[in-house]
Amino acid sequence: MIDIGDQRLRAELANLEGYAFDEVPWTTPRPLAESRVAVVTTAGLRVGDDADWNPGDQSFTVLPADRRDLVLSHFSPNFDRTGWIVDPNVVFPLDRLVEMAAEGVIGSVADVHISFMGAQIDHTLETIRLDTGPASARILSDDGVDVVILTPV
């Protein structure tokens, strides 16, 4: 059994440094009123009976826009699920995006969205930087996504 108690997690994460990129590219997005928008969350959402996340899992799940069968399966027992239970828009704000599209604030809502597992102990996030991050970006790009809203949980 994996010990992920609060004291242990605090001790391991207390001095964790973030990864520093040598270069930070910049692109100018389309105006929001013309942009296709997706959600990328670190809430550990899964679809239906997909396998649960494991500590250190840097894979991702493609989430459909209809939000049916989504399960918040964050592995940490310390993760507060109250917001998700009360209003799933707290971590996956699709209703707000649909409203914004209807009002013309954004161009459209993407058909696919992405979920990663937060609370990564590997501060380099090497797998995400070199593998799953680019793979998930390709999926969003193939759907015509211009802008993502990150819901870091």
How would you describe this structure to a colleague?
This protein is an alpha/beta fold and about 150 residues long. The chain has one domain (about 30-150). Helices cover about 25% and strands about 20% of the residues. The protein has four helices and seven strands; from the N terminus they run αββββααββαβ. The strands form two sheets. Strands 1, 3, 5, 6 and 7 form a five-stranded mixed beta sheet that branches. It has a two-stranded antiparallel sheet with strand order 2-4. The longest helix is centred in the C-terminal third of the chain and has 17 residues, at about 125-140. It is globular, with a radius of gyration of 16 Å. The two termini are about 25 Å apart.
Q: How many structural domains in the coordinates?
A: 1
Sequence of secondary-structure elements: HEEEEHHEEHE
| General shape | globular
* Approximate strand percentage: 15-25%
Write down the overall mean pLDDT.
86
CA distance, first residue to last residue: 24 Å
Q: Count of helical segments?
A: 4
Structural class: alpha/beta
Helix content: 25-40%
What's the gyration radius in Å? 16 Å
The biggest beta sheet, please?
Answer: 5 strands, mixed
Which regions are unreliable across 5 or more consecutive residues at pLDDT < 50? none
Per DSSP E runs of 2 or more residues, the count of β-strands stands at: 7
Name the features.
19% strand, alpha/beta, 153 residues
Short description:
The protein has helices at 6-13, 82-86, 94-102, 126-142; strands at residues 36-41, 45-47, 60-64, 70-72, 108-109, 112-116, 147-151. With 153 residues, the protein is α/β, with parallel strands linked by helices. The strands form two sheets. Strands 1, 3, 5, 6 and 7 form a five-stranded mixed beta sheet that branches.
